[in-house]
Structures are given as structure tokens and as C-alpha cells.
Amino acid sequence: MKFVKLKLFFTTAFILTSLLAFTQEDEKLQFDTSVLSTQPLVKLNKDGGLVKEVNMIANMRFASNNNFVNGQFINSQFRANDLRMEVIGRVTRRLKIRFRDVYSRSAGDGETADLLRRSIDLALVEYDASPKVTVSAGKMFADYGGYEIFYNPITMIVYNDLFAFGDIFLSAVKTTYKFSGKQRLSFQIANSSSRNFDQAYGTTPGAVASKAPFGLTLNWNGTFLDNHFNTKFSFSNFNLIKGEYQNFCILGAQYKKNNYGLSYDIKYSSEAVDRTGVVSTYLGNNFSNRLRDVRYVEHWLRGDYHFTPNLSTTIIGMKSASYWFGNPDKSASKNNLLRNVYTLSATLELHLSKLHNAKLFFGYVGRLERYTTYAKNNFGLKDLGTGQVLVGFMSQLVVF
Q1: Bridge-partner residues for 300, per DSSP?
Q2: Dihedral angle at the C-alpha atoms of 367, 372, 376, 381, nearest 10 degrees?
Q3: What is the DSSP letter of 40?
Q4: pLDDT tens, residue by residue, 298-335
Q5: How many CB atoms sit inside 10 A of residue 179's CB?
Q6: Which of 25, 156, 259, 391 is deepest in the core (most CB within 10 A)?
Q7: Which of 160, 80, 90, 86 is nearest to 123 (CA)?
Q8: pLDDT in tens, 329-365
Q9: C-alpha to C-alpha distance for 360 and 68, rounded to whole angstroms
Q10: Is residue 232 helix, strand or coil?
């Protein structure tokens, strides 16, 4: 009953906000607007076209991947770790479009909840209904908040579990209200999953499909201290299957000044059915057979520093803790905590051409999976350490 009341409250708030009028955010999630000031590879005459302000951007990261497991060298190979083609443009003064497709990932499921291929990250329109309110519709980011999801994925060699394995891109409707130049509040109604019910939860015992499987997100962005300190806080409630929900909270903060920046997220996800799927997977369940009463707690810390205008470094530290509170075991040795994962990512970047936003990079990723004694004794899980050394290039090339 309390979730029904919560949904009613959020839906009413959405309608009231929509009636106020409809702000384009000053920032583009996972998109550096400064890239549009770089020189395109192909110059086109866009006069006379329906969309006069349009750009295609090739987001790419290509590298030599050198892989290690428990300190032992496994293999080395060249890989296009990330390639995403993006189109962003303005149809009219108020109407904008954005589309992004991933070429370094399989299209995935034959049938999805919104009938779009899973390789499509973004396919949306944005409408500035007033100087204070913007409405967006289509496939977009689930508005989780925080800074881990904020950065362009070509610069993110590794993600914490909730974003690495979670459902991030969903078909949705979103309204953003700009209280001032420094405060924004957004509300979003989204599909609870990009997959259809059978694919996501179909073999979960007792699972019954919801007639309205939606997620609700509320996100507040704040700016303080002369734009040096910023916050991204969010709360989400997703209807997974009939009568069962995920509550997801993220608190993100960032401080930037001169040639350095520091960002921190803390995330908490309580999932009546394992929506993220990590615990269910490493305990041996099929993808569509999810465990119940699973929780994740994560910390994410990123530091950026520019030694010179052409030389910079990014260091990211993460921790992800996985809990299974739905474990039917009644023994005294039971431990709800099953696993801690510690990840360190470090890159050194040499900016070759700011004209085309191209840079070489040297990167390292180390990941330690540490299981509790209970998890080892009862589920046969073993500690694991992996490492990866990468040498390559990344760029946001403006094609036209």
C-alpha cells in the first residue's frame, strides 16, 4: 500500500510540474559540450535542411589489452573497448534530438520491452517549454544521479557493479525544473527494465508480471561555492514484478577548481528481487531466475589532475558490497554479506590534439573480489584478483 501511495504522490507531482510550463540543463549527461567547438572531420553545408544545428560524434576507445588473473599473465589483444556513434542536434529553437548507438556491444535480446535494440543507448527528443522547464521523451538514462554515470563512457575504463551490470538506459518521460541557475529538480517515469518480463524475471519462483512495471526517479542537482562544489542526489523506486520493488538512493558530490577535481558517490540499492543480478549470477542462478531480498552498497571516488594543459591523470577507487538477506539458511554461521569488491583504475592521458579532442592513454585496472568465510564454505566461492594494463587512444571525433 505504501508503494501505491508513493507512486500516486510522484505521479501527481509530475503532472503539477508539467502544468507549470516545460529547462534544458546546462550540462549534457555523458557528453562534453566543449567537443562541439572542435574542428569537424567533414564540413557540411547545413543551410536549407530541416535540422540546421546537427553534429555526429564518434566516441571511441581502442587499446592493447593485457590481462592478468591472480598475478598470472593470461593474454594480450587489441580491442575496440568502446565505440559509440552519437547524433545530437537542434530541430527548432526549443526542440532537440539525441541518438547514440553502441558498436562495441551486441544488440542483445531479440525482443525488448520498448522494441529497441539493447545496443541503443539514447534515442530521445527534448523540448524547452519555458526558460525553466524541459520535457524529454524516448530512450534515455535512468535518472539515478551521482557522478559515476555522468562522465562519457569512453573515459570510464571500468564501472562499479551497480552500473556495470545494471539496467541504465530505459525508455522514459522526464521533466526538469530549474529553480535558479544553480538548482534543478527532475522527475522521471521509466520502464522498470529494458527487457521484457520473461527475459528479466520469467523463471523466478512465484514471480508475477506487473501490469504497470514502471520506475520513478527524483533527482536534485545543486551548485554552490561559486560553481566549485556540486551535488547530484537521487531516489528511485522501481516496480520489478507484481508487489515487489527496488529502492535505489545515490548521493553524489564534486569539487572542481583550477586543474584538479574530486568526485564521490555513495549508492544504496535494496532489491526485493535481484534487479542488478550480480548476487544471483555468482550464486549460479540463470539470468531470469533472480534471488529475493538482495542489497548492494557502493562507494566511488574519482580524482582528476592536469599536470600541464596536455598531460592529465585520472585515478578512481571503488568498493562494492553485496548482501543476500533473503537467504533461507537459519544456521548461526549465516552472514548476509557475501562479497566485497575493491577496484582501482588509473590512467595517464597525453592530449595529442585539442582541435580533434584526441589523446593517447596508459591505463591500469586492478580488481579484488573477496568473499566472506560463509560464502566460501556454503557456496564454494573463491577469492579472485584480476588486472588489466591498457595502452591506446580515446577520442570524441566530430565527424560533421
Answers
A1: 265, 318
A2: -30
A3: P
A4: 999 999 999 998 999 999 999 999 999 999 999 999 99
A5: 12
A6: 156
A7: 86
A8: 999 999 999 999 999 999 999 998 776 678 999 999 9
A9: 22
A10: strand
